[in-house]
Here is the input.
Amino acid sequence: MSCRNASVAIIGAGDFIGAAIAKKFAVEGFTVFVGRRNADKLAPLISEVQAAGGSIVGQSLDARKEDEIAAFLARADQHAPLEICIFNVGANVNFPLLETTERVFRKVWEMACYGGFLTAREAARLLVPLGRGALFFTGATASLRGGVGYAAFASAKFGLRAVAQSAARELGPKNIHVAHLIIDAGVDTAWVRERIKAQDGDAAIDNLPPDRLMNAASVANAYWQLYEQPRDAWTFEHEIRPFGEKW
Amino acid sequence: MSCRNASVAIIGAGDFIGAAIAKKFAVEGFTVFVGRRNADKLAPLISEVQAAGGSIVGQSLDARKEDEIAAFLARADQHAPLEICIFNVGANVNFPLLETTERVFRKVWEMACYGGFLTAREAARLLVPLGRGALFFTGATASLRGGVGYAAFASAKFGLRAVAQSAARELGPKNIHVAHLIIDAGVDTAWVRERIKAQDGDAAIDNLPPDRLMNAASVANAYWQLYEQPRDAWTFEHEIRPFGEKW
Amino acid sequence: MSCRNASVAIIGAGDFIGAAIAKKFAVEGFTVFVGRRNADKLAPLISEVQAAGGSIVGQSLDARKEDEIAAFLARADQHAPLEICIFNVGANVNFPLLETTERVFRKVWEMACYGGFLTAREAARLLVPLGRGALFFTGATASLRGGVGYAAFASAKFGLRAVAQSAARELGPKNIHVAHLIIDAGVDTAWVRERIKAQDGDAAIDNLPPDRLMNAASVANAYWQLYEQPRDAWTFEHEIRPFGEKW
Amino acid sequence: MSCRNASVAIIGAGDFIGAAIAKKFAVEGFTVFVGRRNADKLAPLISEVQAAGGSIVGQSLDARKEDEIAAFLARADQHAPLEICIFNVGANVNFPLLETTERVFRKVWEMACYGGFLTAREAARLLVPLGRGALFFTGATASLRGGVGYAAFASAKFGLRAVAQSAARELGPKNIHVAHLIIDAGVDTAWVRERIKAQDGDAAIDNLPPDRLMNAASVANAYWQLYEQPRDAWTFEHEIRPFGEKW
Here is the structure.
């Protein structure tokens, strides 16, 4: 592992996708800054990365707080110039329209969309003077489709996609690569496995064919591919799904 | 003008589009309930509709307040069964990403997206038991495109479109027509004329060809067409633009 | 029925959608020119329209023949100035990719796409000098989605949509309304009923809820609405589906 | 360069994109089969690849001929199992609708769409029994947008996209990766430079900023990234554009 004088900031570093991204960029020599609501939950990730010789810093972070986002990114940038910022906060909920409380609607938006806007703006504040960098957003099927029961979640994800598009058009010419990664499938997480079990029974999980769910490591790999693109051939919207997915 | 025992509620009844919709549905015999931030500004519209023999009720309304929306729709429904609810709140702003304050981002969302969610849910609460009705949303070019400077506005409009889509998929089978009208052009308003003047000079306004801007009455007409569609051929997304518009 | 000095040309006047369009525009006072492969099959339509006091002319027409299209439109225009031209040729087939012969692929394209191009160009040749008119195309779910087994049909429908888009951008500023009507559902035709029966059994047809399929008359109505739009608020892409349709 | 027992077939191996793809996959150890209308023009590419130690076979190929496509792919597969098939035939033309001859419309379709269908089907015939492989299509801005003057080209590219989508949905579950690469920009070719010169003058070319046009090598790189994706995270539609591109 060669060490780079560059940092990656991951906002929303959950146990699956966020952790996989952190591990990938740490292996590639970046110092990785990871933030999530409860920093205690970052301990296993930090241990794993450090055991492998990687450089990682974790902290509690509420992505809905302007000053926390700013301070988190500044801290990363002070350690080593910020090169990549990834917004990966999820908030997948499903409620019938009539049962969607204003509190849920607002909270999902604050986490999945508003936090993304704050991230975009604060990352831009650091990256524009550097004249380069990358700003990536995690999207979902609901970024493009407002399905039954998804008024809150899809609204937030649609909104995040608009932020990403607008940022891409504004920052691209400034040599900052903005991309929106649409994960059009279930990722192999504890939560998705529970949901499958609840819907289709235990056997559905036992008999799950290999690669039927997306592995978090493959999402990290997709982000790595985006990072490696030369600037004359950048992707803004990047969709991925497993080979057997219906779409 | 034949009188119907049915009400139309317009949330966001501004001087142009909202007013034109109100006049159209009043002429068709509906009792029209119009709400906007400052009810004083509704006076000319109310006079005009009443002078023409129409039935109209105006009130101050903050579309960001759950209880105000609910009370407004309930009042309309108590007067005469609610048949159509139109969400027409605009919030068009343009700021570079770095100059978009969190206050602007939040406020634009609250007005243009969150208010639309509250409207959708509260209208559904009244229409689902009736087993019929229509719920329409005003969209814009920014509903589909996050352009430079539109992080806030496009994010809200994308989010509103998701609410509308989700509502359409959920309420359509319940015989409630949900539609999202994309106005892909400048509408002929004082504000648009000022903007053209500022950008292209006075002559640009003086020489504006007929029908180059969209007339508010034509937007009202588009809503009327949506209302008249038979339920075996409903439109969800309806786009309109002037014949000479570049797109 | 008031008589107008204006003609409508329908290319692909089948027993359902095409016939319904013809009846609607005849009732509105247009002289309707209807073309289909086998003119003999037009007899019932012609009788019905004439019995109702309408003006209609039918003829055999191969939409894949440049000169036939040109002659058909010229004939309509000579009778009464051409005002609306509707391309309604269908060619819905479904084959696995490996079983799609080059003959099928080519024929479906010739009927559903190439014929549409010829129609667009020849109609433009007549309408541009008149400085007004309408040019409408019938689309389908497959205009936007290449589903399993639809390599041939979707390819032709995608291609037709491109022709319509390109024509709209080119002819709109010349005051010619080009629209693409996406019928995102099964229309109530003998063929669709057979398909439902084959897939879901006789009971599925017997128990078909009202308005579950789209009525051909509603498609005609959608075209009429497009025709009635003022030019400051034209729709290019117009989607319709029954209230209970999954999408 | 390690040698693989696997072949890549490139249909439409022009001097820029096609050649760059060939060089990339040759460097990675594949035997590359390249076909284009006039095999003589392949000589420089073949020399260059062979000089670098790569394995390459060129031949004349009319992509509109079913038997030629079949024979070309069979020949590649007999040499070494076919692993990737790339359809890269271009046919970019721009004519006003009224000046688009039926000959042009048909020829552009035959080259850019029909040839793609033949390629998809014949590649599937070889890859399905192998239970793996990749099938990639080169798209363009006109794959998604029917602009002024693009009735013929956009129609063919829309149609090709439908073929690719349909193939992806059908072959994905069979472990064959189908992708559609949308090049949303001008690629740095002699033709594009001429076009810029014609439109904007000599200075526009002299002052062209670095990476303002897309390099053919970057397109090849994009295909390589698609090839390297794990099957639990495949991309179907992949868009690329230079950092400074307006979109």
